[in-house]
Amino acid sequence: MSSVGLEGWILLFVNIAVVQGPLTLGLRCSELIVNVIRDETQWRCATGKKGRKVATNPLKPIFTHLLCLVLFLAKPFLHWMFGLLFTISVSATDENIRYLPVYMYTAQIWNLCVALFIFACDSNFVAVHRPCGLQPAAYATSKRSPTS
User: Fold this and answer.
1) Per the domain annotation, does 118 fall within a domain?
2) Is position 66 within any domain?
3) Which residue spans traverse the membrane (predicted)?
C-alpha cells in the first residue's frame, strides 16, 4: 500500500492556497480603496479653515474611521468563513497515511458566497461614491503660487 508522502501534503497546501488567493487579493484591494478614502477625508479636513490636529497614535485614525473599522472586522470574519468550507480527513493504517480526502460543505459555500456578495456590493458603493468638497491636487498645497 502506498502512503501519502510529502508530495501529498504539498499538493494539499498549494490547492487550498490557490483557492484562498483570490479571497485574500480581493480583501486587500478593498483595503486599499478604504485607505485612500480615509486619507482623502483627512486631507479635506486638513485643508479646511480649522485645519486638522496631527494624531500621534497611528491606530487612532483606523479605529475612528467607520470604513476602516468595518474592514478590520470583515477581513478575519470572511477568512474564518472560508476556513469553515474545508474538512481534511486522514485515513491511516499501520502508521501510514493512505489518503487525504478534502470535504467541502455546500451550505458553507453558500454562506460565504452571500457574505462576499454583500461585502462586494458595499465595497463597490464605497469605491463609486465620491465625497463632496475640494481635494488638493496631488496632495500638495491648496494655494497656487502667483507665478503660475
Assistant:
1) yes
2) yes
3) 6-27, 62-82, 102-121
Query: How many CB atoms are closer than 10 A to CB 30?
Result: 22
Q: Is residue 42 part of a domain?
A: yes
For 90-147, write each residue's pLDDT tens digit.
776 777 777 778 888 999 999 999 999 999 999 999 888 877 766 655 555 545 545 5
The set of cell numbers assigned to 55 is: 494624531
Half-sphere exposure of 120 (CA within 13 A, CB side): 9
> Is the whole model's pTM more than 0.85, yes or no?
no
Q: How many domains would you assign to the chain?
A: 1
Hunting for cell 508522502 — which residue is that? 5
Instruction: Report the chain's mean pLDDT, rounded to a whole number.
Output: 81
104: part of which helix (H) or strand (E)? strand 102-104
Q: Which three cell numbers stand for residue 6?
A: 510529502
Measured CA to CA, the distance from residue 19 to residue 7 in angstroms comes to 18
Domain residue limits at 30: 6-133
Whether 46 is in a domain gets the answer: yes
Cβ distance 103 to 91 under 8 Å?
no
